[in-house]
Amino acid sequence: MPKPEYEFTPTSSVEFAPCNPHIEGLSEAILARNTADDSVTRILRFEPGTDTTPNGALRHDFWEEVFIFEGSFVDQRLGQTFRAGDWATRPPGMEHGPWISAEGAKMFEVRYYQRKGE
């Protein structure tokens, strides 16, 4: 089923839930999901002190576009700090993370799959 149709809705109406796999202090609010291909629009929240190092660097089979709109985190692999206003576009297979967020952060994220032949 494609993502549902919503008119403007306050993000506060969507509850945060722990991410899978679980990382202490990391949670997500799913704004929309396409159950046919699992493409997702979400807000990812890092509580102050969140450390994703135990899960290591990530790679996945979908496109990911992210925009940090609050706070900051340090990319442990790159040794760089990324802050509100920074964004990334990651193709399938691109290595990224892990991160530590001393102050906490929130990101808007869209995940989607490329159709065969595109």
From TrEMBL:
Which part of the chain is the ChrR-like cupin domain?
Answer: 11-108
The record's listing under Gene3D superfamilies reads: Jelly Rolls
What the entry lists under InterPro entries is as follows: ChrR-like_cupin_dom, RmlC-like_jellyroll, RmlC_Cupin_sf
Task: Output this protein's name.
Answer: ChrR-like cupin domain-containing protein
- Please tell me the species this chain comes from: Arthrobacter ginkgonis
